[in-house]
Write a structure and sequence with these properties.
This is PTS system mannose/fructose/sorbose family IID component. By secondary structure, the protein is an all-alpha fold. It has two domains: 181 residues, no CATH class; 69 residues, no CATH class. The protein has ten helices and four strands; from the N terminus they run αααααααβββαααβ. It has a two-stranded antiparallel sheet. Strands 2-3 form a two-stranded antiparallel ribbon. Strand 2 and strand 3 form a beta hairpin. Helix 2 packs parallel to helix 4 and helix 4 packs antiparallel against helix 5.
């Protein structure tokens, strides 16, 4: 079937091959973050890694291709570099099966999975593995053992292999999700969300360092506000800061860039007056 001949779902009937998935993996490893920006973060990089495949699915220069590209760039998108192709594989499986009729489902998939996968992937592959194997390699290097560098390189090769492998796995599983297992997609999203919320809570507690430095004197008694917050709930102040930023992002016209500047200005001002300090 030529690219000008369309099926009812707007596709050319093209079936994605292993070579297509390999091309996606190469682009993902080399340039997924190149288009990163504060407004929509990874949305352009995501489109770039799948664009050659979309051209084959919808036909080059067709209205369907333009609609698919606009849909991919419309939502805010940001997830872990180590697990992003799980979403990509399922996305392409849906679009291959349903075409432009599946773009709404794709948008929901990206929104539902990007947060949970970000917290899980960054925690395991961005923090845990580098900490363990980086410390091991550094300790061996300090002792004059060159084997540490090979361990570090081997771990990173395995991680990149896993990143490539999951594209194929997600695509194959995605075909099942859109044919015989569509009822399990919501369960997958819910399970990832629960794990993601758990990991986000751990990341907030360990990576957001802010304490109340002010100790007002009331009736001749010095009140340690930070200690009171700790008794109510450990890490309450970092959690409150994250909640404040979340509230800001829900306001109309608010962007992540504006939220960053607001937090920056408040931090400088409150720090200058001795109200807060770095934890």
């Amino acid at each position: 079937m030529s690219s000008n001949e369309k099926l009812a779902n707007g596709t050319t009937g093209y079936k994605i091959t292993k070579d297509d998935l390999a091309q996606i993996n190469r682009r993902n490893l080399l340039g997924f973050q190149d288009g990163w920006n504060y407004e929509r973060m990874q949305h352009s990089g995501y489109l770039w890694i799948i664009l050659p495949t979309l051209r084959k699915l919808y036909g080059d220069g067709t209205p369907e291709l333009k609609e698919a590209c606009r849909a991919q760039c419309a939502p805010f998108f940001n997830t872990s570099n180590f697990l992003n192709t799980i979403i990509t594989g399922i996305d392409l499986a849906i679009e291959e099966e349903e075409g432009i009729e599946g773009l709404e489902a794709v948008a929901g998939l990206k929104t539902g999975l990007m947060g949970p996968l970000a917290s899980i992937g960054d925690s395991i592959f961005g923090s845990l593995l580098p900490t363990i194997f980086g410390a091991l390699a550094a300790n061996m290097a300090m002792n004059g053992n060159p084997l540490g560098i090979f361990i570090w390189v081997a771990v990173n090769i395995l991680v990149d292999w896993f990143r490539c492998k999951q594209t194929h796995m997600a695509y194959e599983q995605g075909m099942k999700l859109v044919t015989t297992m569509s009822d399990r997609l919501n369960a997958l999203t819910d399970a990832a969300s629960v794990m993601g919320v758990f990991m986000v809570g751990a990341l907030v507690a360990t990576n957001v360092g802010i304490v109340i430095a002010a100790k007002p004197v009331i009736g001749g008694v010095t009140v340690d506000l930070q200690n009171i917050c700790n008794m109510i709930c450990p890490k309450l102040v970092p959690a409150a800061l994250v909640g404040f930023v979340y509230w800001l992002l829900g306001k109309k016209g608010m962007t992540s860039t504006k939220a960053i500047f607001i937090v920056l200005v408040l931090s400088i001002a409150l720090g200058a007056f001795g109200i807060i300090c770095k934890g």
